[in-house]
Amino acid sequence: xxxxxxxxxxxxxxxxNTKKAFYSDLNPIFYNHPDIFGKHLTDGEDMMVYSFMLHExxxxxxxxxxxxxxxxxxxxxxxxxxxxxxxxYLQDPTLMHEADVQYTDMMDSWNKLYKVLIEYPNYFKP
Length: 126
Known about the structure:
Helix content: 40-55%
Radius of gyration: 18 Å
Number of helices: 7
Oligomer: single chain
Largest sheet: none
Shape: globular
């Protein structure tokens, strides 16, 4: 691969982003819950994209992104998913603390989002 050589091109219409999420059929949900999806929040736009992705995943083969979703990894090996015993092997209390903080933040965000999503059973299955 040469410097500056194009390896792959993806049409803009196939890229999942905040704009695509915002203008989807989930738009009323985003307007109804600015406390979760507002631009003024650090993770508001992320929550929009997460919701959009979950909605597309639940559509299964009816989603325009089905082929891409099928290729996503089913399991990720990131620090916040490690159990305590594996973290101890690192022998790094700072890294262990960071993993705990990341996990706590992620669960807090998920719990807030989940409370909203369950209000919309037409869009999100349990």
